[in-house]
Write a structure and sequence with these properties.
The complex is a heterodimer of chains A (about 210) and B (about 150). Chain A is of the alpha/beta class and about 210 residues long. Chain A is built from five helices and nine strands; from the N terminus they run αβββαβαβαββββα. In chain A, strands 5-4-3-8-9 form a five-stranded mixed β-sheet, sandwiched between helices. The radius of gyration of chain A is 24 Å and the shape is elongated. Helices cover about 10% and strands about 50% of the residues of chain B. Chain B contains one helix and ten strands; from the N terminus they run H-E-E-E-E-E-E-E-E-E-E. Chain B has one helix spanning about 1-15, and strands at about 30-35, 45-55, 60-65, 70-80, 85-90, 95, 100-105, 110-115, 125-130, 135-145. In chain B, a hairpin with a 4-residue loop joins strand 4 and strand 5. The chains are: A alpha/beta (about 210), B mainly beta (about 150). Strand 7 of chain A pairs antiparallel with strand 5 of chain B.
Chain lengths: ~210, ~150
C-alpha cells in the first residue's frame, strides 16, 4: 500500500469519525436534540390562573403561598386513579397528623365540563378534610396545567362517554412557592411520607 | 384476528347449541379479596377489585364480566407513562397461568363498571359473574366499601 493510499484512508477514517461526532452532538446537545419531555413546574409565583374552590371562593396559585402545598390533577368520573390518589393522600395526611395542619392539598379537575363546583365539593368531602377541590373554566384549567407542566387529554369511550388521560403525579411546593419535587402516582407510603416531611422541614428552615 | 375467529366460533356454538363447557379449568379459579368503592350517584363509572387464583394445572382465561349493577362491565387497566401521565383502557382477556394468581388492584387492572344501573352503597354487596374461555362461569358477591377505601380491608 502506498503512502498516499494510507493517507487517503486515514483522512477518510478521520472524516467519518468527525461526522459521527457531529451527528452525535446534533442529536444530543445541538439543534436536533429532542425537547425535554418532562419539565419542572414553574414556581407558583410565576403561574397565573383563577379557579373556584369547593367552598365557592376564588382561588389561584397565590392562595397557596405562605404554606407548603401538594397539588394534583384528576377528575371525579375517574374510577381508579383519582380515588386511589385521594385515598393515598388521605393516608399520608393521617400519618403526618398535626405536622401537616397548615399544608395546602389541592385536587384540580381536568374535566370542568362534568366536574362542577358542587360535584367537586361533594367528591372531596369523602376524603381527608384538608383536601380542597378546585375547578376552573376550560381556559383557566389549560393555563394551570401549563404552569405545572401537566398534561391532560379527553379520550372518547363510546357514545357520549369519555375519560381523561392526565398527569397523575403529586406536585409539591414550599411555602415560597418553589417547586419541591413530585410524588409519583401510587407511590408507597414509606417513600411518600418522608418526601412530604422533607418539604415541611425545608419550609421550617426558610421561615426560621 | 384470533379474537374475531373466537368470537365467530363462540357465536356459532351458541346458535347450534354445542356444549360450551368442553375443556375444564375454570372450576379451579378461586376469587379472593373482592371489593369495590361506593359510588356517588349512578353517572360515574365504578370499579371493582379482586384476586383470581388458579388452583388447577391448566391456564384459565377470563373473557367477560356481567352484573345487574352495570350495563357495560369490562376489565380495564391503568397505565402510567414515564412522564407520569395515566391512561386507562380495556385489556380484553386475562389469562391466569396454572398455579398462579392475577390481581385486579388500584393502579393496575380493575373491573370497570360502566353505565351503573343503581348507586353503589357502602355496606351492600353486588353479584359479579366472571365468564371464562371454557364456558364456565363464577359469580362473586362483591362487598361495597367506602369511597375512600384503599383495599379489601377498607
Amino acid at each position: 500500500m502506498s503512502r498516499r493510499t494510507l493517507l487517503a484512508y486515514g483522512a477518510a477514517i478521520a472524516g467519518v469519525a468527525a461526522l459521527a461526532l457531529f451527528i452525535g452532538w446534533w442529536q444530543v446537545d445541538g439543534p436536533g436534540a429532542p425537547e425535554p419531555v418532562a419539565q419542572r413546574p414553574l414556581p407558583l409565583t410565576q403561574m397565573d390562573f383563577q379557579m373556584t374552590d369547593q367552598g365557592g371562593e376564588t382561588v389561584g396559585p397565590a392562595s397557596l403561598l405562605g404554606n407548603p402545598s401538594m397539588v394534583f390533577f384528576g377528575f371525579t368520573y375517574c374510577p381508579d386513579v383519582c380515588p386511589t390518589t385521594l385515598s393515598d393522600i388521605s393516608g399520608w395526611l393521617d400519618d403526618l397528623g398535626d405536622d401537616v395542619a397548615d399544608m395546602n392539598v389541592v385536587f384540580i379537575t381536568v374535566d370542568p365540563k362534568r366536574d362542577t363546583v358542587a360535584a367537586m365539593a361533594e367528591y372531596v368531602s369523602y376524603f381527608h378534610p384538608a383536601i380542597q377541590g378546585w375547578r376552573g373554566s376550560q381556559d383557566q384549567t389549560m393555563r394551570a396545567a401549563e404552569g405545572f407542566r401537566a398534561s391532560y387529554e379527553k379520550v372518547a369511550t363510546g357514545g357520549d362517554d369519555y375519560t381523561m388521560n392526565h398527569t397523575a403525579s403529586v406536585f409539591m411546593f414550599d411555602a415560597e412557592g418553589q417547586f419541591a419535587g413530585t410524588i409519583d402516582y401510587h407511590e408507597p407510603r414509606e417513600f411518600a411520607v418522608p418526601k412530604i416531611r422533607r418539604v415541611l422541614a425545608r419550609t421550617e428552615e426558610e421561615t426560621s | 384476528m384470533n379474537s374475531t375467529v373466537a368470537a365467530i366460533a363462540l357465536a356459532f356454538s351458541a346458535i347450534v347449541g354445542l356444549p360450551t363447557t368442553s375443556s375444564a379449568g375454570s372450576e379451579d379459579i378461586v376469587v379472593d379479596d373482592a371489593w369495590a368503592r361506593a359510588s356517588i350517584g349512578i353517572n360515574r363509572p365504578g370499579a371493582a377489585y379482586m384476586t383470581l387464583r388458579n388452583t388447577g394445572t391448566d391456564p384459565v382465561t377470563l373473557v367477560g364480566l356481567e352484573t345487574p349493577l352495570a350495563m357495560m362491565p369490562d376489565i380495564h387497566e391503568t397505565k402510567t407513562d414515564a412522564n407520569g401521565v395515566s391512561s386507562m383502557g380495556p385489556v380484553g382477556e386475562i389469562t391466569i397461568p396454572a398455579g398462579e394468581s392475577v390481581s385486579l388492584e388500584p393502579g393496575g387492572m380493575h373491573a370497570m363498571l360502566m353505565r351503573l344501573q343503581t348507586k353503589m352503597v357502602e355496606g351492600e354487596t353486588f353479584p359479579l359473574t366472571l365468564t371464562f374461555a371454557d364456558g364456565g362461569t363464577l359469580t362473586v358477591d362483591v362487598p361495597i366499601l367506602g369511597i375512600a377505601a384503599r383495599g379489601p380491608e377498607g
